[in-house]
Amino acid sequence: xxxxxxxxxxxxxxxxxxxxxxxxxxxxxxxxxxxxxxxxxxxxxxxxxxxxxxxxxxxxxxxxxxxxxxxxxxxxxxxxxxxxxxxxxxxxxxxxxxxxxxxxxxxxxxxxxxxxxxxxxxxxxxxxxxxxxxxxxxxxxxxxxxxxxxxxxxxxxxxxxxxxxxxxxxxxxxxxxxxxxxxxxxxxxxxxxxxxxxxxxxxxxxxxxxxxxxxxxxxxxxxxxxxxxxxxxxxxxxxxxxxxxxxxxxxxxxxxxxxxxxx
Length: 263
Fold this sequence. Notes:
Order of helices and strands: EEHEHHEHHEHEHEHEHHHH
Low-confidence stretches: none
Helix content: 40-55%
Distance between the termini: 33 Å
């Protein structure tokens, strides 16, 4: 799927944007993000709602296609405490972390109140089904118009596009790993879907109860990443310890290059 063109999205709102390590990030709080996202829904303007953490920014600087995708998005949130801390260090202060799973639940709550149509795409069949069940129990008025597990081949992308264009969801939450998730969203947008697409990583696993979420005290202390590593050390150790080290080094280099006037 390397030939997918990158859709340069229309940017609504007039919020400030900063750049950290070649990555554009919107200076938005959670509430400001929700209000702005709703503008896209109301106006039927396509949106790839992007969240970036240290791992994503590392990928941006190693993958030119990912860089194009991320920086073309209409809203790009700081979904990582390390990104918020880096912004302070670089004197490009961001207001707060916009955690992906919390933002997803806020948008589901908004959809429950306003009647927006929601579609879940990704994870194992039993996980996405359980996620649907949990959400409908919590939000009985939620208009959840469809689900599909994440175990499909590239040649099925057109079928997914056809279904989405037929049922016209307002929100499509995509629980698939990167970079396939970003490539798929770009493809679906290029096929004409005007939904708000949001990559939500492993949120379906958490919502369904398949994987526990960090306790509140760890979330408040920005230690949710450590809890995740302890849950899946083999899969996540390299990403968080080696990856975060690479990110910190790059941020330090960016600051001192700026002091010396190096571009």
